[in-house]
Amino acid sequence: MICGDTRSPLVVRIGEKGLIWVKSTSSRKPVHDAHLHIGVNAIDLLLRALKAPKSLEWKLSKVNEDVKVVIETVQCILILERITVSVGSLLGGTTPNLVPDATSAAADIRIVMGISADDSVRKTYKRLDDLQGVSFRGLRSIVSWICPSEDFVKLSLEVSRSVVRPRAAVNMRVGASDSRLFRKRGIPMAVAGLTRHGMGGADEHLMAEELV
Description:
single chain, alpha/beta, Alpha-Beta Plaits, five-stranded mixed beta sheet, two-stranded parallel sheet, 6 helices, elongated
């Protein structure tokens, strides 16, 4: 099936970067800043813990041939070649002269084709084993793609090349799409659509020529 979405008619997108949301919390004994020697700063502890998911950021080196073909088509889009980790929220503390007793943070991890979400979460847990007073849990996990060697993908690419331009290619998508809901149920799904211009702005538009 084809999921119609704005991007480019020159690209058949067979998957999205996997999305993993994680939350980490820490709690310690609260003390006054004048007595740091008898307390532990929960924010300091959590900042150490956040190095665990950040350590997952790396560029793919060894991948199977199917994945390699897709990566080679997106050499100019480096973010599609590597795992990325972004800490989106950090909460803790009330005033500068009190050691915070509790804090929490949430991070967004985006994985690429060939990387398992379970492996990524497991590696994070392993790096947190030695930190007392820190908890870590996954909030959301979405990993969605289909094999580029599937007949459905080959046919979709053939149609794009014959109808649009010969240089159409298979690629991955940075964001998510509804296609993940179908892939989750075993239905092959690719994303194709028109090029968006000014997305999110007052002048957002498409080119009518691409409808032909």
